[in-house]
Structure formats: C-alpha cells, structure tokens
Amino acid sequence: MQNQTASRTASAPALQPDNKRKTAMTSKTSDGIWGYVFIFPQLVGLLLFSLIPLISAFVLSMMKWDGMGEKQFVGLDNFINTFKDEDFRIAVVNTLYYTVLTVPTGIILAMLIAVGLNRVKGKLIYRLIYFMPNITMSVAVAVVFMWLFNADFGLINLYLKEWFGIDGPRWLTDTRFVMPSIAMLSVWMGLGGNMVLFLAGLQGISASYYEAAQIDGASKWQQFINITVPLLSPTTFFVTIMTIIGSFQVFDQSFVMTSGGPAKASYTIVFHIYDSAFVDFTFGKSTATAVILFIMILALTLFQMKISKRWVHYED
Questions:
Q1: Is 15 helix (H, G, I), strand (E, B) or coil?
Q2: What's the domain range around 18?
Q3: Which of 65, 97, 131, 294 could form an SS bridge with 192, CB 3.0 to 4.6 Å?
C-alpha cells in the first residue's frame, strides 16, 4: 500500500509538465487560428485586388487587344514595340527629370520643417496645417495651381512683378518651365506627409545624444549633421523609397494642368499608359508599358535596399 502511494506521488510531478505542454500547444494553435481569422479579410482583398490583377496584367501584356474583340497572343511584341516608341522614350526622360526635381527637394524641405516644428510649441496645429494638402484631392489642387501659374493673371506672376519687378514666365505653356511647375505643385502636396514621418522619427531620437553633444561643446549645426541626420536615416530611407515610387507614377497633375504638353514636355510614363489604352485602344501595349514601369520601380527599390546598408544607421 505504501509502495503504491509512493509510486503515485512520484509519477504525479512527471505528468504536470506534459499537461503544461499540451495546454501551451493548444493555446498556440488557438492563437494561430484566430490570427488567420483576423487576417483573412486582408488576404482576400490582397488576392482579389492585387495578386490576380497583377497576374492578369502580365498575361495581357503579351496579347494584342483593342478592348472589344478577341485577344491575340503576340509574345514579346508589345514590349519590343514599346521600347521602339518615341513617345515612350520621351515619357521616360520626362519622368526621370520630374523625379530629380521632386525627390531631393521634397525630402530636404520636409526634414528641415520637421526639425523646426520639433522645437516649437503647438506642434499638433502646425502638423495639421502642413498635412492638409496631403489629403486634398490632387485634381482640385491642380485646378487651383493652374490659376496660380496663369501667365496673364496668376498670383505668382503678379507678385513677381509687384515685389521684384520681374515678368514671370509662362509656367504651363513654356517647355522649359512646365515640368518645374508640376514639380513645385507635387512637392507642396507631399510635404506634409513626409514632414509627419520625419517628425515621428525625430521624436524617437533619445535626448541623451544631444545632451552629451552639448556637454562636448557641439553647435546646433554639428548636432544636426552628426546626430539628427544619421539617426533619421531609417526614416529618410523609407521616405526616399516612397517618394521615388510616387514620382514614377505621376499622372494627375500632368493630365489636368497641361494634358501632357506643351510639345509633350510633361508627358510621363503613366500618361503614356493612359494614352495607349484609352486613346489608341492598344490595351496590350499599354499593359506592357505598365509592366515595364513595375519592373523599373522594383529594380530601383531593390537597388536602394542594397545600398542602404552603407548609409542607414539603426539606433541600438
């Protein structure tokens, strides 16, 4: 009897770990199931509105189709014809020019404004004011800027004349100024969003770095160059990627303000995609151009991620 009791007592602790393991496994399984339940709507949306259209686009890029008749498989002819198209080459050059104008300017201005706002009271109000253009419809903003850039009665040329005695250029009808004009509009629209991101990054930098720099006698400029800029590099990296992707997809401003003109000086890649599809009704060629744009953006993003290890510094 005593032996049986001792045996039960000895075996009881051995059963407890097994029960704990079973309970833990059951809990993990339950958590996993609920996790899939919660992400299921997003997975369905990703499948229906992203993956399936993406695969369909790759298939359609190898077809000849006018939107009405039967599709005809043509292989890589659409891609070859796209690269031979003079309008496509013009669109690529204009898009790259627009990217060069908007990306560095927008990032630098957003960073400087964020640094300034981080030092003043009432950051919430200023953040709201700067962010408002970011949520405004691009078409509405383009219409307003068409009036501002008007060469005859626009406010910009009016103030240039009254304040500086300068006759302003014909912003939207001169091939030299049309793309810088659209770039100014785009920088103004995207400034608030980038500024909010930089402001969030600044608030994540520990104040101890600046206190140590002040003890060492570092100036504000030295603190900005040696502390703020390096520790903001992850935010700068993200903003750079998103801004470049957005610059390659510019369409609304060009379509509303200039219709791609004058003399195709504001004719962009996405405008060419629209033109091929809904003006020439060559949907296969249009989709091929979209696939080329996708590959360009993907390659550029991967390249940035590759070289980011050299200049992006994450705080330990």
A1: helix
A2: 2-60
A3: 131
